[in-house]
Amino acid sequence: MMVRSLAETLAQTALAAERGADLVELRVEQFTHAPDELIELLDQCPLPCILTCRPTWEGGHYEGDEATRAAFLQHVLLGERGEGDGVTRPPVYIDVELLAYQRSPEMRDLIARIVDHPAQEHPARVGLILSSHDFEQRPADLLQRVEAMLEAPECRVMKIVWQARSLRNNLEAFEVLRASYKPTIALCMGEFGLASRVLAKKFGALLTFAGLDDDTGTAPGQVGVATMKQLYRWDAIDRDTQVFGVIGWPVAHSKSPQIHNAGFDAVGHNGVYLPLPIPPEWEHFKATVGEWVADENLDFQGASVTIPHKAHLLQFVREQGGEIDELADRIGAANTLARRPNGSLFATNTDYGAALDAVCDAMQIEREDLAGKRVAVIGAGGVARAIVAGFAHYGATVVVYNRTASRAEELAKAFNGKTGKVVAAPMSKLCDTCCEIYINCTPIGMHPDVDASPMETLPKQTTSQTVVFDTIYNPTETKLLRQAKEAGCVTVGGIEMFNRQAAAQFELWTGKQAPAEVFNVGR
Ligand code: NAP
What we know:
Layout: H1 6-18, E1 24-27, H2 35-44, E2 49-52, H3 66-78, E3 93-97, H4 98-103, H5 105-114, E4 127-134, H6 142-151, E5 155-163, H7 168-179, E6 184-189, H8 194-198, H9 225-231, E7 242-248, H10 256-267, E8 271-277, H11 282-294, E9 300-305, H12 310-319, E10 323-324, H13 326-331, E11 336-339, E12 345-348, H14 350-363, E13 374-378, H15 382-393, E14 397-401, H16 405-415, E15 421-425, E16 437-440, E17 467-470, H17 479-486, E18 490-492, H18 494-510, H19 516-519
Parallel strand pairs: 1-2, 2-3, 3-4, 4-5, 5-6, 7-8, 7-9, 10-12, 13-14, 13-16, 14-15, 16-17, 17-18
Antiparallel strand pairs: 9-11, 11-12
Helix pairs in contact: 2-3, 3-5, 10-18, 14-15, 14-18
The site of NADP nicotinamide-adenine-dinucleotide phosphate has 22 residues, from helix 15 and helix 18.
Protein backbone atom coordinates (compact mmCIF):
# COMPACT_ATOMS: atom_id res chain seq x y z
CA MET A 1 0.00 0.00 0.00
CA MET A 2 1.06 3.57 -0.66
CA VAL A 3 2.12 5.27 2.55
CA ARG A 4 0.83 8.83 2.80
CA SER A 5 0.42 9.24 6.54
CA LEU A 6 1.21 7.28 9.67
CA ALA A 7 -2.36 7.13 10.96
CA GLU A 8 -3.91 6.16 7.60
CA THR A 9 -1.35 3.44 6.97
CA LEU A 10 -1.69 1.96 10.45
CA ALA A 11 -5.46 1.78 9.96
CA GLN A 12 -5.00 0.19 6.51
CA THR A 13 -2.48 -2.38 7.70
CA ALA A 14 -4.82 -3.34 10.54
CA LEU A 15 -7.59 -3.80 7.97
CA ALA A 16 -5.30 -5.84 5.71
CA ALA A 17 -4.47 -8.11 8.66
CA GLU A 18 -8.15 -8.48 9.45
CA ARG A 19 -8.86 -9.43 5.81
CA GLY A 20 -6.24 -12.17 5.94
CA ALA A 21 -3.00 -10.63 4.63
CA ASP A 22 0.16 -12.23 6.07
CA LEU A 23 2.60 -9.55 4.96
CA VAL A 24 2.23 -5.97 3.80
CA GLU A 25 4.26 -4.03 1.27
CA LEU A 26 4.76 -0.43 2.32
CA ARG A 27 5.38 1.76 -0.72
CA VAL A 28 7.10 4.72 0.90
CA GLU A 29 8.17 6.85 -2.04
CA GLN A 30 5.64 9.57 -1.19
CA PHE A 31 6.77 9.59 2.44
CA THR A 32 10.48 10.25 2.10
CA HIS A 33 10.12 13.60 3.87
CA ALA A 34 9.30 11.84 7.14
CA PRO A 35 11.83 9.08 7.91
CA ASP A 36 11.22 9.27 11.67
CA GLU A 37 7.50 8.79 11.20
CA LEU A 38 8.24 5.86 8.94
CA ILE A 39 10.35 4.33 11.71
CA GLU A 40 7.37 4.73 14.00
CA LEU A 41 5.13 3.11 11.40
CA LEU A 42 7.43 0.12 10.98
CA ASP A 43 7.69 -0.30 14.73
CA GLN A 44 3.91 -0.26 15.15
CA CYS A 45 2.84 -2.08 12.00
CA PRO A 46 0.61 -5.06 12.88
CA LEU A 47 2.02 -7.15 10.01
CA PRO A 48 5.53 -8.03 8.88
CA CYS A 49 6.50 -5.74 5.98
CA ILE A 50 8.28 -5.31 2.71
CA LEU A 51 9.78 -1.83 2.45
CA THR A 52 9.79 -0.37 -1.06
CA CYS A 53 10.74 3.08 -2.30
CA ARG A 54 10.10 2.70 -6.02
CA PRO A 55 11.63 5.27 -8.41
CA THR A 56 9.64 6.70 -11.32
CA TRP A 57 11.94 4.97 -13.82
CA GLU A 58 10.61 1.61 -12.53
CA GLY A 59 6.92 2.61 -12.34
CA GLY A 60 6.97 4.18 -8.86
CA HIS A 61 6.71 7.76 -7.59
CA TYR A 62 10.18 8.49 -6.22
CA GLU A 63 11.72 11.29 -8.26
CA GLY A 64 14.95 12.01 -6.39
CA ASP A 65 18.48 10.78 -7.03
CA GLU A 66 19.92 7.50 -5.86
CA ALA A 67 22.20 9.01 -3.22
CA THR A 68 19.21 10.68 -1.53
CA ARG A 69 17.13 7.48 -1.77
CA ALA A 70 19.94 5.44 -0.22
CA ALA A 71 20.39 8.02 2.56
CA PHE A 72 16.66 7.94 3.32
CA LEU A 73 16.57 4.15 3.52
CA GLN A 74 19.72 4.14 5.63
CA HIS A 75 18.15 6.65 8.02
CA VAL A 76 15.15 4.38 8.48
CA LEU A 77 17.05 1.13 8.80
CA LEU A 78 20.29 2.16 10.51
CA GLY A 79 19.57 5.60 11.97
CA GLU A 80 20.44 9.05 10.67
CA ARG A 81 24.18 8.56 10.96
CA GLY A 82 24.06 4.88 10.04
CA GLU A 83 25.01 3.86 13.54
CA GLY A 84 22.17 1.49 14.23
CA ASP A 85 19.57 3.72 15.93
CA GLY A 86 16.94 3.35 13.19
CA VAL A 87 13.95 1.09 13.26
CA THR A 88 13.68 -1.48 16.05
CA ARG A 89 11.29 -3.76 14.12
CA PRO A 90 12.91 -3.81 10.69
CA PRO A 91 10.99 -4.91 7.60
CA VAL A 92 11.37 -8.55 6.65
CA TYR A 93 12.41 -7.50 3.16
CA ILE A 94 13.54 -4.43 1.36
CA ASP A 95 12.73 -4.34 -2.36
CA VAL A 96 15.37 -2.83 -4.62
CA GLU A 97 15.27 -2.77 -8.41
CA LEU A 98 17.73 -4.95 -10.30
CA LEU A 99 18.78 -1.88 -12.30
CA ALA A 100 19.61 0.06 -9.14
CA TYR A 101 21.60 -2.91 -7.86
CA GLN A 102 23.50 -3.02 -11.13
CA ARG A 103 24.03 0.69 -11.70
CA SER A 104 23.83 2.68 -8.47
CA PRO A 105 26.95 2.58 -6.26
CA GLU A 106 25.00 4.24 -3.42
CA MET A 107 22.23 1.61 -3.43
CA ARG A 108 24.79 -1.16 -3.77
CA ASP A 109 26.71 0.20 -0.78
CA LEU A 110 23.48 0.42 1.23
CA ILE A 111 22.55 -3.15 0.31
CA ALA A 112 25.99 -4.36 1.34
CA ARG A 113 25.47 -2.88 4.79
CA ILE A 114 21.82 -3.54 5.55
CA VAL A 115 20.75 -6.86 4.09
CA ASP A 116 21.35 -10.29 5.42
CA HIS A 117 23.41 -12.38 2.98
CA PRO A 118 26.19 -14.99 3.18
CA ALA A 119 29.09 -12.48 3.18
CA GLN A 120 27.42 -10.00 5.55
CA GLU A 121 29.75 -8.78 8.32
CA HIS A 122 27.24 -6.63 10.22
CA PRO A 123 24.23 -7.87 12.13
CA ALA A 124 21.39 -7.56 9.60
CA ARG A 125 17.84 -8.79 9.73
CA VAL A 126 16.52 -7.54 6.38
CA GLY A 127 16.26 -9.78 3.33
CA LEU A 128 16.76 -8.36 -0.15
CA ILE A 129 14.12 -8.68 -2.86
CA LEU A 130 15.69 -7.81 -6.18
CA SER A 131 12.94 -6.80 -8.56
CA SER A 132 12.42 -6.08 -12.21
CA HIS A 133 9.29 -4.63 -13.83
CA ASP A 134 8.17 -4.03 -17.39
CA PHE A 135 4.94 -2.08 -17.71
CA GLU A 136 4.69 -2.61 -21.48
CA GLN A 137 5.26 -6.27 -22.23
CA ARG A 138 7.29 -9.37 -21.53
CA PRO A 139 10.86 -8.07 -21.50
CA ALA A 140 12.91 -9.39 -24.40
CA ASP A 141 15.75 -10.09 -21.94
CA LEU A 142 13.53 -11.86 -19.40
CA LEU A 143 15.91 -14.77 -18.92
CA GLN A 144 18.97 -12.53 -18.54
CA ARG A 145 17.15 -10.53 -15.86
CA VAL A 146 16.21 -13.71 -14.05
CA GLU A 147 19.77 -15.00 -14.23
CA ALA A 148 21.20 -11.73 -12.93
CA MET A 149 18.90 -11.79 -9.92
CA LEU A 150 19.56 -15.45 -9.19
CA GLU A 151 23.31 -14.88 -9.34
CA ALA A 152 23.36 -11.79 -7.09
CA PRO A 153 24.65 -13.15 -3.75
CA GLU A 154 22.72 -10.56 -1.70
CA CYS A 155 19.42 -11.42 -3.39
CA ARG A 156 17.27 -13.57 -1.15
CA VAL A 157 14.10 -13.24 -3.25
CA MET A 158 13.83 -12.70 -6.99
CA LYS A 159 10.84 -10.73 -8.24
CA ILE A 160 10.01 -10.40 -11.93
CA VAL A 161 6.86 -8.66 -13.12
CA TRP A 162 5.65 -7.69 -16.56
CA GLN A 163 2.55 -6.54 -18.39
CA ALA A 164 0.79 -9.53 -19.90
CA ARG A 165 -0.30 -9.20 -23.51
CA SER A 166 -2.15 -12.51 -23.55
CA LEU A 167 -3.04 -15.38 -21.22
CA ARG A 168 -0.02 -17.21 -22.60
CA ASN A 169 2.29 -14.90 -20.63
CA ASN A 170 1.11 -16.53 -17.42
CA LEU A 171 2.61 -19.83 -18.51
CA GLU A 172 6.01 -18.17 -18.79
CA ALA A 173 5.67 -16.74 -15.30
CA PHE A 174 4.90 -20.26 -14.02
CA GLU A 175 7.96 -21.57 -15.84
CA VAL A 176 10.14 -18.95 -14.11
CA LEU A 177 8.74 -20.06 -10.75
CA ARG A 178 9.27 -23.73 -11.48
CA ALA A 179 12.83 -23.28 -12.69
CA SER A 180 14.00 -20.98 -9.88
CA TYR A 181 16.20 -22.20 -7.03
CA LYS A 182 15.59 -19.10 -4.90
CA PRO A 183 12.33 -17.89 -3.38
CA THR A 184 10.64 -16.18 -6.30
CA ILE A 185 7.79 -13.89 -7.21
CA ALA A 186 6.84 -13.97 -10.91
CA LEU A 187 3.70 -12.07 -11.86
CA CYS A 188 1.97 -10.67 -14.91
CA MET A 189 0.11 -7.37 -14.72
CA GLY A 190 -3.13 -6.35 -16.39
CA GLU A 191 -6.35 -8.22 -17.12
CA PHE A 192 -4.50 -11.09 -18.80
CA GLY A 193 -2.30 -11.60 -15.74
CA LEU A 194 -4.81 -12.59 -13.07
CA ALA A 195 -3.95 -16.29 -13.46
CA SER A 196 -0.34 -15.60 -12.49
CA ARG A 197 -1.50 -13.84 -9.34
CA VAL A 198 -3.99 -16.50 -8.26
CA LEU A 199 -1.98 -19.56 -9.29
CA ALA A 200 1.34 -18.25 -7.89
CA LYS A 201 1.05 -20.63 -4.94
CA LYS A 202 0.44 -23.66 -7.18
CA PHE A 203 3.84 -23.06 -8.73
CA GLY A 204 5.66 -22.41 -5.46
CA ALA A 205 5.88 -18.61 -5.48
CA LEU A 206 6.95 -16.97 -2.25
CA LEU A 207 3.85 -14.78 -2.29
CA THR A 208 1.32 -12.97 -4.39
CA PHE A 209 0.22 -9.36 -4.10
CA ALA A 210 -3.33 -8.23 -3.43
CA GLY A 211 -4.74 -4.77 -2.76
CA LEU A 212 -6.71 -3.73 0.29
CA ASP A 213 -9.76 -3.68 -2.01
CA ASP A 214 -10.26 -4.59 -5.66
CA ASP A 215 -9.84 -0.93 -6.66
CA THR A 216 -6.90 0.11 -4.51
CA GLY A 217 -4.09 -2.14 -5.68
CA THR A 218 -0.61 -0.78 -6.38
CA ALA A 219 -0.30 -2.49 -9.79
CA PRO A 220 -2.62 -3.03 -12.77
CA GLY A 221 -4.69 -6.19 -12.45
CA GLN A 222 -4.24 -6.61 -8.71
CA VAL A 223 -7.38 -7.82 -6.93
CA GLY A 224 -8.27 -7.18 -3.30
CA VAL A 225 -7.11 -9.48 -0.53
CA ALA A 226 -10.69 -10.55 0.26
CA THR A 227 -11.27 -11.45 -3.42
CA MET A 228 -8.04 -13.39 -3.51
CA LYS A 229 -8.85 -15.28 -0.32
CA GLN A 230 -12.59 -15.80 -0.63
CA LEU A 231 -13.40 -15.80 -4.35
CA TYR A 232 -10.19 -17.42 -5.61
CA ARG A 233 -9.63 -19.62 -2.54
CA TRP A 234 -5.96 -18.67 -2.10
CA ASP A 235 -5.55 -20.70 1.09
CA ALA A 236 -6.80 -23.89 -0.59
CA ILE A 237 -4.53 -23.66 -3.63
CA ASP A 238 -1.64 -26.10 -3.81
CA ARG A 239 0.39 -27.78 -6.53
CA ASP A 240 -2.43 -30.24 -7.30
CA THR A 241 -5.11 -27.59 -7.80
CA GLN A 242 -6.94 -28.06 -11.08
CA VAL A 243 -7.54 -24.98 -13.21
CA PHE A 244 -10.86 -23.98 -14.82
CA GLY A 245 -12.23 -20.74 -16.17
CA VAL A 246 -14.62 -18.82 -18.35
CA ILE A 247 -13.29 -17.98 -21.80
CA GLY A 248 -14.86 -15.00 -23.54
CA TRP A 249 -14.36 -11.41 -24.67
CA PRO A 250 -15.13 -9.56 -22.52
CA VAL A 251 -15.40 -11.75 -19.39
CA ALA A 252 -14.69 -9.39 -16.50
CA HIS A 253 -18.43 -9.05 -15.78
CA SER A 254 -19.05 -12.82 -15.62
CA LYS A 255 -20.67 -14.22 -12.50
CA SER A 256 -19.38 -17.72 -13.27
CA PRO A 257 -16.23 -17.44 -11.08
CA GLN A 258 -18.42 -16.73 -8.04
CA ILE A 259 -20.58 -19.78 -8.67
CA HIS A 260 -17.96 -22.34 -9.63
CA ASN A 261 -15.42 -21.37 -6.96
CA ALA A 262 -18.12 -21.49 -4.29
CA GLY A 263 -19.12 -24.88 -5.72
CA PHE A 264 -15.56 -26.22 -5.45
CA ASP A 265 -15.47 -24.98 -1.89
CA ALA A 266 -18.78 -26.59 -0.99
CA VAL A 267 -17.90 -30.07 -2.32
CA GLY A 268 -14.19 -29.92 -1.40
CA HIS A 269 -12.94 -30.10 -4.99
CA ASN A 270 -9.34 -28.94 -5.38
CA GLY A 271 -9.95 -26.51 -8.22
CA VAL A 272 -9.98 -22.82 -8.99
CA TYR A 273 -12.01 -21.02 -11.67
CA LEU A 274 -10.78 -17.82 -13.32
CA PRO A 275 -11.96 -15.28 -15.89
CA LEU A 276 -9.96 -16.02 -19.04
CA PRO A 277 -10.13 -13.17 -21.56
CA ILE A 278 -9.25 -14.15 -25.13
CA PRO A 279 -9.64 -11.59 -27.96
CA PRO A 280 -12.36 -12.43 -30.51
CA GLU A 281 -10.30 -13.85 -33.38
CA TRP A 282 -9.95 -17.60 -33.96
CA GLU A 283 -6.14 -17.32 -34.05
CA HIS A 284 -6.08 -15.97 -30.49
CA PHE A 285 -8.40 -18.70 -29.28
CA LYS A 286 -6.46 -21.47 -30.98
CA ALA A 287 -3.04 -20.27 -29.83
CA THR A 288 -4.05 -19.57 -26.23
CA VAL A 289 -6.24 -22.58 -25.54
CA GLY A 290 -3.74 -24.74 -27.41
CA GLU A 291 -0.93 -23.71 -25.08
CA TRP A 292 -3.07 -23.92 -21.96
CA VAL A 293 -4.28 -27.46 -22.64
CA ALA A 294 -0.79 -28.59 -23.66
CA ASP A 295 0.84 -27.37 -20.44
CA GLU A 296 0.97 -30.47 -18.25
CA ASN A 297 1.97 -28.59 -15.13
CA LEU A 298 -1.01 -26.27 -15.36
CA ASP A 299 -3.64 -29.03 -15.13
CA PHE A 300 -6.18 -27.03 -17.10
CA GLN A 301 -9.24 -29.26 -16.78
CA GLY A 302 -12.08 -27.33 -18.32
CA ALA A 303 -13.74 -24.09 -19.26
CA SER A 304 -17.04 -22.40 -19.79
CA VAL A 305 -16.91 -20.77 -23.20
CA THR A 306 -19.00 -17.78 -24.06
CA ILE A 307 -19.39 -15.11 -26.75
CA PRO A 308 -17.60 -14.87 -29.19
CA HIS A 309 -15.86 -18.25 -28.93
CA LYS A 310 -18.62 -20.87 -28.90
CA ALA A 311 -18.03 -21.92 -32.51
CA HIS A 312 -14.25 -21.68 -32.06
CA LEU A 313 -14.45 -24.26 -29.30
CA LEU A 314 -15.99 -26.80 -31.66
CA GLN A 315 -13.36 -26.12 -34.30
CA PHE A 316 -10.58 -26.38 -31.74
CA VAL A 317 -11.72 -29.67 -30.24
CA ARG A 318 -12.26 -31.09 -33.72
CA GLU A 319 -8.73 -30.11 -34.74
CA GLN A 320 -7.32 -31.63 -31.55
CA GLY A 321 -9.04 -34.93 -32.33
CA GLY A 322 -11.36 -34.63 -29.33
CA GLU A 323 -14.98 -35.63 -28.95
CA ILE A 324 -17.94 -33.36 -29.64
CA ASP A 325 -21.46 -33.78 -28.31
CA GLU A 326 -23.72 -34.53 -31.28
CA LEU A 327 -26.29 -31.83 -30.63
CA ALA A 328 -23.60 -29.22 -29.91
CA ASP A 329 -22.15 -30.10 -33.30
CA ARG A 330 -25.52 -29.58 -34.99
CA ILE A 331 -26.13 -26.36 -33.10
CA GLY A 332 -22.71 -25.21 -34.26
CA ALA A 333 -21.79 -23.91 -30.82
CA ALA A 334 -20.41 -25.37 -27.60
CA ASN A 335 -20.18 -23.66 -24.23
CA THR A 336 -18.21 -26.27 -22.29
CA LEU A 337 -14.72 -27.68 -22.61
CA ALA A 338 -13.84 -30.68 -20.46
CA ARG A 339 -11.00 -33.15 -20.26
CA ARG A 340 -11.58 -36.85 -20.19
CA PRO A 341 -9.58 -38.87 -17.63
CA ASN A 342 -7.24 -39.94 -20.47
CA GLY A 343 -6.52 -36.27 -21.19
CA SER A 344 -8.54 -36.05 -24.42
CA LEU A 345 -10.83 -33.08 -24.97
CA PHE A 346 -14.60 -33.01 -24.99
CA ALA A 347 -16.86 -30.15 -26.09
CA THR A 348 -20.52 -29.96 -25.26
CA ASN A 349 -23.35 -27.48 -24.96
CA THR A 350 -25.08 -27.32 -21.59
CA ASP A 351 -27.34 -24.41 -22.67
CA TYR A 352 -29.99 -26.46 -24.44
CA GLY A 353 -30.26 -29.03 -21.63
CA ALA A 354 -30.45 -26.22 -19.09
CA ALA A 355 -33.29 -24.52 -21.01
CA LEU A 356 -35.16 -27.81 -21.39
CA ASP A 357 -34.83 -28.66 -17.71
CA ALA A 358 -35.79 -25.16 -16.58
CA VAL A 359 -39.05 -25.46 -18.54
CA CYS A 360 -39.70 -29.12 -17.68
CA ASP A 361 -39.13 -28.52 -13.96
CA ALA A 362 -41.60 -25.61 -14.04
CA MET A 363 -44.14 -27.82 -15.84
CA GLN A 364 -43.30 -30.81 -13.65
CA ILE A 365 -42.77 -33.03 -16.68
CA GLU A 366 -39.86 -35.02 -18.16
CA ARG A 367 -38.00 -33.93 -21.31
CA GLU A 368 -39.70 -36.76 -23.24
CA ASP A 369 -43.11 -35.26 -22.38
CA LEU A 370 -42.22 -32.24 -24.57
CA ALA A 371 -43.04 -34.33 -27.69
CA GLY A 372 -45.92 -32.68 -29.54
CA LYS A 373 -45.93 -29.50 -27.41
CA ARG A 374 -46.11 -26.22 -29.35
CA VAL A 375 -43.27 -23.82 -28.56
CA ALA A 376 -42.84 -20.21 -29.75
CA VAL A 377 -39.21 -19.05 -29.83
CA ILE A 378 -38.62 -15.32 -30.22
CA GLY A 379 -35.20 -14.56 -31.71
CA ALA A 380 -32.90 -16.49 -33.99
CA GLY A 381 -29.45 -15.85 -32.51
CA GLY A 382 -27.10 -18.14 -30.60
CA VAL A 383 -29.36 -18.87 -27.62
CA ALA A 384 -32.41 -19.38 -29.84
CA ARG A 385 -30.46 -21.88 -31.91
CA ALA A 386 -29.56 -24.00 -28.87
CA ILE A 387 -33.11 -23.82 -27.56
CA VAL A 388 -34.73 -24.67 -30.91
CA ALA A 389 -32.34 -27.63 -31.28
CA GLY A 390 -33.14 -28.89 -27.79
CA PHE A 391 -36.93 -28.64 -28.02
CA ALA A 392 -37.00 -30.06 -31.55
CA HIS A 393 -34.76 -32.92 -30.42
CA TYR A 394 -37.43 -33.95 -27.91
CA GLY A 395 -40.14 -33.80 -30.54
CA ALA A 396 -41.74 -30.42 -29.85
CA THR A 397 -43.21 -28.31 -32.65
CA VAL A 398 -41.27 -25.05 -32.67
CA VAL A 399 -42.27 -21.79 -34.33
CA VAL A 400 -39.45 -19.24 -34.70
CA TYR A 401 -40.28 -15.52 -34.75
CA ASN A 402 -37.51 -13.07 -35.47
CA ARG A 403 -37.02 -9.44 -36.42
CA THR A 404 -34.99 -10.53 -39.44
CA ALA A 405 -37.30 -13.07 -41.06
CA SER A 406 -34.57 -14.68 -43.16
CA ARG A 407 -32.64 -15.69 -40.01
CA ALA A 408 -35.77 -17.31 -38.58
CA GLU A 409 -36.23 -19.24 -41.82
CA GLU A 410 -32.60 -20.40 -41.84
CA LEU A 411 -32.87 -21.57 -38.26
CA ALA A 412 -36.10 -23.43 -38.94
CA LYS A 413 -34.60 -25.11 -41.98
CA ALA A 414 -31.55 -26.26 -40.01
CA PHE A 415 -33.60 -28.19 -37.45
CA ASN A 416 -36.93 -28.96 -39.10
CA GLY A 417 -37.84 -32.59 -39.50
CA LYS A 418 -34.90 -34.11 -37.61
CA THR A 419 -37.21 -35.09 -34.76
CA GLY A 420 -39.67 -32.25 -34.15
CA LYS A 421 -41.18 -29.81 -36.60
CA VAL A 422 -39.60 -26.33 -36.82
CA VAL A 423 -41.15 -23.52 -38.86
CA ALA A 424 -40.62 -19.78 -39.14
CA ALA A 425 -43.45 -17.27 -38.86
CA PRO A 426 -43.63 -13.48 -39.23
CA MET A 427 -43.10 -11.49 -36.05
CA SER A 428 -46.48 -9.79 -36.64
CA LYS A 429 -48.24 -13.14 -36.06
CA LEU A 430 -46.70 -13.68 -32.63
CA CYS A 431 -49.72 -12.43 -30.71
CA ASP A 432 -52.06 -14.73 -32.66
CA THR A 433 -50.36 -17.98 -31.74
CA CYS A 434 -51.72 -20.69 -29.52
CA CYS A 435 -48.45 -22.13 -28.26
CA GLU A 436 -48.09 -23.77 -24.87
CA ILE A 437 -44.59 -22.42 -24.27
CA TYR A 438 -43.20 -18.95 -25.17
CA ILE A 439 -39.46 -18.36 -24.98
CA ASN A 440 -37.79 -14.98 -25.36
CA CYS A 441 -34.30 -15.35 -26.85
CA THR A 442 -33.77 -11.67 -27.67
CA PRO A 443 -32.22 -9.01 -25.43
CA ILE A 444 -35.50 -7.05 -25.37
CA GLY A 445 -36.15 -6.21 -21.71
CA MET A 446 -32.57 -6.66 -20.61
CA HIS A 447 -30.91 -4.12 -18.31
CA PRO A 448 -30.95 -1.15 -18.79
CA ASP A 449 -33.94 -1.40 -21.15
CA VAL A 450 -36.10 -2.92 -18.42
CA ASP A 451 -39.43 -1.43 -19.54
CA ALA A 452 -39.34 -3.19 -22.90
CA SER A 453 -41.00 -6.50 -23.72
CA PRO A 454 -40.86 -8.61 -26.89
CA MET A 455 -44.66 -8.91 -26.72
CA GLU A 456 -46.86 -5.86 -26.30
CA THR A 457 -49.64 -8.12 -25.06
CA LEU A 458 -49.69 -11.83 -24.49
CA PRO A 459 -51.68 -13.93 -26.98
CA LYS A 460 -55.40 -14.19 -26.07
CA GLN A 461 -55.17 -17.96 -25.90
CA THR A 462 -52.80 -18.00 -22.90
CA THR A 463 -54.07 -19.90 -19.89
CA SER A 464 -52.74 -20.75 -16.45
CA GLN A 465 -51.06 -23.73 -18.15
CA THR A 466 -49.10 -21.54 -20.59
CA VAL A 467 -45.39 -21.28 -19.83
CA VAL A 468 -43.49 -18.03 -20.46
CA PHE A 469 -39.71 -18.37 -20.28
CA ASP A 470 -37.49 -15.30 -20.59
CA THR A 471 -33.83 -16.26 -21.10
CA ILE A 472 -32.75 -12.81 -19.85
CA TYR A 473 -31.37 -12.97 -16.28
CA ASN A 474 -30.60 -9.31 -15.72
CA PRO A 475 -33.05 -8.27 -14.32
CA THR A 476 -34.24 -11.53 -12.80
CA GLU A 477 -37.85 -10.46 -13.34
CA THR A 478 -38.32 -8.86 -16.75
CA LYS A 479 -41.34 -6.97 -18.00
CA LEU A 480 -42.35 -10.05 -20.02
CA LEU A 481 -42.32 -12.18 -16.89
CA ARG A 482 -44.42 -9.61 -15.02
CA GLN A 483 -46.94 -9.59 -17.88
CA ALA A 484 -47.05 -13.39 -17.77
CA LYS A 485 -47.48 -13.46 -14.00
CA GLU A 486 -50.34 -11.00 -14.21
CA ALA A 487 -51.98 -13.25 -16.83
CA GLY A 488 -51.61 -16.19 -14.43
CA CYS A 489 -49.10 -18.10 -16.59
CA VAL A 490 -46.28 -20.32 -15.39
CA THR A 491 -43.09 -18.22 -15.53
CA VAL A 492 -39.44 -19.23 -15.85
CA GLY A 493 -36.62 -16.71 -15.46
CA GLY A 494 -33.30 -16.77 -17.32
CA ILE A 495 -31.43 -17.41 -14.08
CA GLU A 496 -33.03 -20.87 -14.01
CA MET A 497 -31.28 -21.64 -17.28
CA PHE A 498 -28.03 -19.95 -16.26
CA ASN A 499 -27.79 -21.90 -13.01
CA ARG A 500 -28.57 -25.20 -14.70
CA GLN A 501 -26.01 -24.78 -17.48
CA ALA A 502 -23.40 -23.96 -14.84
CA ALA A 503 -24.43 -26.94 -12.67
CA ALA A 504 -24.12 -29.29 -15.65
CA GLN A 505 -20.59 -28.01 -16.33
CA PHE A 506 -19.64 -28.40 -12.69
CA GLU A 507 -20.87 -32.00 -12.63
CA LEU A 508 -19.00 -32.82 -15.82
CA TRP A 509 -15.73 -31.42 -14.45
CA THR A 510 -15.88 -32.68 -10.87
CA GLY A 511 -17.98 -35.85 -11.16
CA LYS A 512 -19.88 -34.52 -8.14
CA GLN A 513 -23.43 -33.26 -7.85
CA ALA A 514 -23.59 -29.47 -8.04
CA PRO A 515 -24.46 -28.27 -4.53
CA ALA A 516 -28.01 -26.91 -4.59
CA GLU A 517 -27.25 -24.10 -2.15
CA VAL A 518 -24.64 -22.66 -4.54
CA PHE A 519 -26.22 -23.35 -7.92
CA ASN A 520 -29.80 -22.78 -6.72
CA VAL A 521 -30.99 -25.72 -8.72
CA GLY A 522 -33.92 -27.35 -6.99
CA ARG A 523 -33.37 -30.95 -8.04
P1 NAP B 1 -27.68 -12.95 -30.45
O1 NAP B 1 -27.02 -14.13 -31.06
O2 NAP B 1 -27.12 -11.60 -30.67
O3 NAP B 1 -29.21 -12.93 -30.97
C1 NAP B 1 -30.08 -11.93 -30.58
C2 NAP B 1 -31.43 -12.15 -31.23
O4 NAP B 1 -32.30 -11.15 -30.73
C3 NAP B 1 -31.43 -12.01 -32.75
O5 NAP B 1 -32.32 -12.93 -33.27
C4 NAP B 1 -31.89 -10.58 -32.96
O6 NAP B 1 -32.63 -10.39 -34.15
C5 NAP B 1 -32.84 -10.40 -31.82
N1 NAP B 1 -32.91 -8.99 -31.41
C6 NAP B 1 -31.91 -8.25 -30.88
N2 NAP B 1 -32.36 -7.01 -30.62
C7 NAP B 1 -33.65 -6.97 -31.03
C8 NAP B 1 -34.64 -5.96 -31.03
N3 NAP B 1 -34.39 -4.75 -30.55
N4 NAP B 1 -35.86 -6.26 -31.51
C9 NAP B 1 -36.13 -7.48 -32.00
N5 NAP B 1 -35.22 -8.48 -32.02
C10 NAP B 1 -33.99 -8.23 -31.53
O7 NAP B 1 -27.81 -13.12 -28.88
P2 NAP B 1 -27.89 -14.48 -28.05
O8 NAP B 1 -26.51 -14.94 -27.70
O9 NAP B 1 -28.79 -15.41 -28.73
O10 NAP B 1 -28.53 -13.98 -26.67
C11 NAP B 1 -29.88 -13.58 -26.62
C12 NAP B 1 -30.30 -13.32 -25.17
O11 NAP B 1 -30.25 -14.53 -24.45
C13 NAP B 1 -29.33 -12.40 -24.42
O12 NAP B 1 -29.76 -11.08 -24.56
C14 NAP B 1 -29.39 -12.88 -22.99
O13 NAP B 1 -30.24 -12.08 -22.23
C15 NAP B 1 -29.96 -14.26 -23.09
N6 NAP B 1 -29.02 -15.27 -22.59
C16 NAP B 1 -29.41 -16.02 -21.53
C17 NAP B 1 -28.56 -17.00 -21.03
C18 NAP B 1 -28.98 -17.82 -19.84
O14 NAP B 1 -28.22 -18.70 -19.42
N7 NAP B 1 -30.14 -17.58 -19.30
C19 NAP B 1 -27.33 -17.25 -21.65
C20 NAP B 1 -26.97 -16.47 -22.74
C21 NAP B 1 -27.83 -15.48 -23.19
P3 NAP B 1 -31.94 -10.19 -35.57
O15 NAP B 1 -31.67 -11.56 -36.09
O16 NAP B 1 -32.96 -9.47 -36.35
O17 NAP B 1 -30.70 -9.38 -35.34
